[in-house]
Amino acid sequence: MSTPGRSSPPDGDAALRAVTGLAARLSGTVVVGIALFVLWQAWPALQAVGPLRFVTDAGWHPLAQPAQFNLLPMLVASVAVTLGAMLLAGPLGLFTAIFMTDYAPPALARLLRGVVELLAGVPSVVYGLWGLVTLVPLLAAWQPPGASLLAGILVLALMILPTMVLAAHAAIAGVAAEHRLTVAALGFSCAGSLWGVLLPAARDGLCGALLLSTARALGETMAMLMVTGNVARMPDSLFAPARTLTANIALELAYAMDRHRAALFVGGLLLTALVLALVRLARGLGCAWRHA
Asked: CA-CA distance, 149 to 77, in Å (whole number)?
């Protein structure tokens, strides 16, 4: 019984609602603050150089006279390695998650999950080192120079595969048990229940898995520094050396000054825009899948 004249203490639900609401607002504020900071740092270059020159200049030569600031080759390389890695890791990760959830014996599923979790914890520099000393020489023996867009795609696919597997496995395993019991009672085959009921029920989680994996691939830096060749020109084939936006920022920010430094932040702004477009695309695909 509450004492007259005193307000009742908030119940557990109200307190939790307040804490989670504060955390959500704080997270949103941090994200907006980062975006505004990148825009603020990039604004001098956008104002002095103009947005069009970042895609129309002859090349990326920020220290030349006159300076050139073409970021388009690096933007194309970033999108290409991310798309190529997702085309490899997406289906492979989804099928691995399906096998672990619905086909593998429990002991084997636990073993596979442990291995995947171990791979997910490996630092990116280790993947890059493996790519540099093993994969790049193999590609060079097949098609020089070895350090290329293809090397970046293969290393990046290996890096994001554990993330894709774990997130997709969690989405599929999280489907309500009632769904599985219902399709079993109706006599569905394992494949029929999987494609007709379980995967559609897990669509939101699977879209999240794709989004998380793609965002990680888009932002990867160290491994791309080590295996793509770091040549700031438009890649004309899978075997051509390239440089991603993240690698360009990591290579040059330490010594960049004035307009050069601001131009690197324009690259960061492009990456931010790509992530926002990716989120919008994922939401659109999720809505389309939901109404299909």
From this structure: 7
Nearest to 199 by CA among 172, 217, 224, 220: 172
4-43 pLDDT, tens per residue?
555 545 567 888 888 999 999 999 899 899 999 999 999 9
Task: Please state the rounded mean pLDDT for residues 182-196.
Answer: 69
Compute CA distances 249 → 49, 116, 180, 234, 256, whole Å.
18, 30, 48, 17, 10
Residue 60 Cα distances to 47, 109, 141, 228, angstroms: 18, 49, 30, 17
The C-alpha atoms of residue 224 and residue 152 are separated, in whole angstroms, by: 6
Residue type at position 217: A
CB atoms within 10 A of CB 46: 17
Separation CA 290–CA 26 (nearest Å): 30
Residue of 116, 89, 84 lying closest to 100 (CA atoms): 116
Peptide bond into 66 cis (omega under 30): yes
Six token digits for residue 104: 């593998």
Mean pLDDT over all residues of the chain? 86
CA trace torsion 172, 92, 276, 24 (10° rounding): 30
Q: What pTM does this model have?
A: 0.85
CA distances to 135, 165, 177, 219 from 170, in Å = 31, 9, 14, 23
User: Residue 210 in contact with residue 218, Cβ under 8 Å?
Assistant: no
**Residues 177, 179, 181, 184, Cα dihedral to 10°:** -140
Q: How far apart are CA 115 and CA 162, in angstroms?
A: 9
Q: 229-283: per-residue pLDDT in tens?
A: 999 889 889 999 999 999 999 999 989 899 999 999 999 999 998 888 888 877 7
For β-strands 68-69 and 60-61, DSSP reports them as antiparallel
